[in-house]
Amino acid sequence: MPNAVISRRFSFSAAHKLLNHNGQCANLHGHTYDVEVFISGPIQPVTDVAASSEGMVIDFRYIKDLFYERVRDVCDHRFLNEVVPVKATTAEMLALWMLYELHTAYVGIVGVKVCEQADTTATVEWDESMNDTSFWRKA
User: Which domains does the chain possess?
Assistant: First the structure.
């Protein structure tokens, strides 16, 4: 079966500050975060037997439900420094955490892009080294 990479976009609003940062981002501030989740997998065949996922990698609704449960419901209109278990609430670390949360629930999720604003993004792609969470996870 042919493989495809699909994506779904989401947004939420939250506040954070970068501790130990030498600049304005050390102050409390907020963003409307735009997040894109990338899913890779085989395109399901279309058969004579009706299947809800035929012709798809996965139903986009499943990705939405998973994102809301694992990320949006944790972060939306919250202070990220208090609710996200990362060492720093940078776009890179947030993308790492989101990808870990989503990939461990569905292995087809292979990347996450976090945009704090239109011209600043961080994209993280899954690799097995992410199973060692000591690099990014707050103790």
Answer: 3-135 (3.30.479.10)
Whether the full predicted model's pTM is greater than 0.85, yes or no, is: yes
Q: Give Cα separations from 71 to 78, 93, 95 (angstroms).
A: 11, 13, 10
Q: Do 127 and 111 meet the contact criterion of CB atoms below 8 Å apart?
A: no
Residue numbers in the chain where pLDDT is lower than 50: none
| CA distance linking residue 119 with residue 17, whole number of Å | 19
Eight-state DSSP code of residue 137: B
**How many CA atoms are closer than 13 Å to the CA of 56, on its beta-carbon side?**
14
CA 125 to chain centre: 10
Contact 70, 101 (CB under 8 A): yes
The rounded distance, in Å, linking the Cα atoms of 122 and 93 is 9
Contact 38, 111 (CB under 8 A): yes
For 54, residues 6+ apart whose C-beta sits below 8 A from its C-beta are: 44, 45, 46, 47
